[in-house]
Amino acid sequence: MSSNDSSLFVFLLDRSGSMNDIKNDVEGAFRALIDEQKAVPGSATVSLHQFDDTYEDVFVGLPIEQVKPLVIRPRGTTALLDAIGRTVTATRERIAAMPAGQRPGTVHLNIMTDGLENASKEYTRPAIKALLEAQEKVDKWLIAYLGTNQDAVEVGTSLGISPERSLTYTSATVRSAMSSYSELTTKARKARRDGASPDAVIAGASFTDLQREEAGN
Known about the structure:
It is a single chain. The termini are far apart. The chain has one domain (3-215): von Willebrand factor, type A domain (Rossmann fold), CATH 3.40.50. The protein contains seven helices and six strands. Strands 3-2-1-4-5-6 form a six-stranded mixed β-sheet, sandwiched between helices. It is of the alpha/beta class. Helix 3 links the parallel strand 4 (104-113) and strand 5 (142-147). The chain is globular. 44% of the residues are buried.
């Protein structure tokens, strides 16, 4: 049995070459989000994975109080599908290996990219769509997709992510988009802590029209 008060944040961040223009904003927005979530009641651990055409586990399952400032070094192309597949598979296996009482009450997966898939070799889009849909339906993960230089709702849907939790941002609204995600997450954590079922938490988690407007939708 997991604890309603515990959360696992899994961040999958694009660091491909095109991220160079928004690098500083993403780093600052990530730092602000972590600070905000530290203040939310309940325990939280964080995993951070970065990708271009290669993949890196920056840290895994770190207590949120120990998370250091994000550093992005943009390079390479965008193997988005492979990065999602590796992140989800490894996270799922790690949770399954935990004693039941230590498993997180909610897994929050955030995928943030500024470009479209162009370099994956291991996973196909249909495979990722099936994988993410299963993680939400079966394991009750709360999955969000933030994308720029694209229609994030359209791309997110093609990946099996709910339109309600997909957000398009611009190079000028990175911090606003990440702040909106933090608000969504805070609301979900409170609902879970107050006894809401995982299904109810997922159903109530969505970006608002105002948040979409502020992000440049």
